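re: that chain from earlier
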Amino acid sequence: MPAEREWSRRGFLKRAGAGAGAAAFAPGALGAAAAQAPEPARGLTATPRSVHPTLNRRARGWLRFLWEKTTTPDDWGGDGMPHPWWDRYSNPVVTSYPRFDLQDSSYAVLVMADQTPAWREVYTRIADGLATRYPTYWGAIDWLTQIGDDPRRANYPDAVMQGIPERLRGNYNRIGWTANGVEPWGLSPDPIGSEGNLFFRGWFNLVLSIYKYVSGDDKYERPFPVTGYGDVQFEWDHHRIAEFLEGQYRERPEGPHCENTKIWVPCNAAAGLGLYLYDRVYGRDRHRPVEGWLEYAKDNYLSVDSSGGLEWIANYYDPIVNHMSTAGAAAGVFDGMLLLPQDREFTEFLYEAAANALGWNDPSVPVQPSPAGTLLAREFGDHTSLERLRAAAELAFEPKYFGDDDAMFGWWFGLNDGFPRGQLSAQMMLAEVGEADAWGRALEAPHLDKYAAPTVEGVDFPSLGLYQAWNDTDGGALNVGTYAAAPDRRGMETSWRVTNLPDPEDVYILCDGQPFTRFAVDGPGSIRIDGTIDLRHYQIHTGYRGESAEQAADRRRRQRQHGASASAAGAAPAALGGARQSEAGGRGHGRVQEASTSLASGDGPTCACCVA
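^ sequence. v structure.
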């Protein structure tokens, strides 16, 4: 497997122009080699129809690209530079940092892994590649370099000044400037253990929760280093981060700050989502104080008209200057993507407001593509809006297969980059994976029994891939669908294993409906299957009927004990400065209701999280 992987990587990098010099790091110079190459004659095969979940062709192409991104070594330390395919170009000065690519890319990994719960190894490698890069210098580069007030704030361009209240212009930091070190908080060298910087640790906790659910292992429950200011290393683990977040929400019902002084609604929605998934994976209850923030947000961070329709929703609230930046009724759809399992009714309210404001379900109104809108239209069964939004994206967002034999897929957006633009591509892929409410279901962590169920291991990815890996507990069979992930390897010999079998001696297999005998018991509870790299469907009769009620209860008990003991072993720092922040900014409903407001325009820098 290592030799195959290295071969694939060299071939891809050669064709994609990834070995370019420093000039390649500019978006316009990423190289058109991949985009201009003649289209190969062969590509990924279509996914066969099945009554069980599968990965479609686009999802498999995106999986292959994520594999290349996450398994290709690069250096995210202070003396290094992330590979140019990590998106640090989108939405300049606001989300133009590569960690936003990490967090966005984790979403589809969660959903893909939930379509094939009996195959975890590849998703685990990818999720680990995302999580490992996060607590680095480049992961927290904005917090570690944007110290104090922005020295350029008196000379912002007009487009930026228009987004700042007139009374504050020249003396106020633009959105995206983290302002680490400003009063009353002072310099915080630790990007996690700080009062602000929620958009770092909140999304990191979500990435770690996704890793835990995908893999089932405890890697990030053990202490790991986090790079801080001046390259000082801080030690954290997943449980301490979740505990720290819970403490912040208990102290701050208005929500923690992202950039210092700014409480962003989408960042808080993401932080809440991370705690929501954490609770489902570990059997804990750390999300409860976020429910209080949600009620606070409904009371203070949006406005409805006399008929109950959404008038505006806050982008952020600054309690220091008592100002709120708002956006129109269409702006809550990205928040809704992150709030979906936390408050489905509120999410549907935000979605309907956006759909009505933008005319998604009105055939007479032209529509613009919306990644979050497409996802929520699918989640809520709004088929008219879904088809219109998908058609708009097909026309405007340039979906394209690329790489050796067109084995990879992404969205190119007409940018002439050498690779699919990471952040928006990742958001678009959420609506490509699975069907109906796949995103919402995956966030409920429904397959916690998968770690003890029959599991496929040792797949020679990226030569061989699986479009299906599903335990049918009614029939007692593991359904495995294989395909040539590297089409030029089709027909070659390969082998893989099935573990966690109740009794490997009793296994029998059908391949494409015919008896299959090229397998052997190779250990306690496991078999080795010898086959070829090709489109095949295996029905492996294992006798597995799911975990018993007693086993499920025992699993939940062990999860709760594990989370509790790990948390106690490394207690998080005490919740910081609730009273001080309250004194500095106030957090009563009355003060928020008296805040000045400004409607964000599309001329200056905006947060990509705050647009439809």
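The two ends are 42 Å apart (CA to CA).
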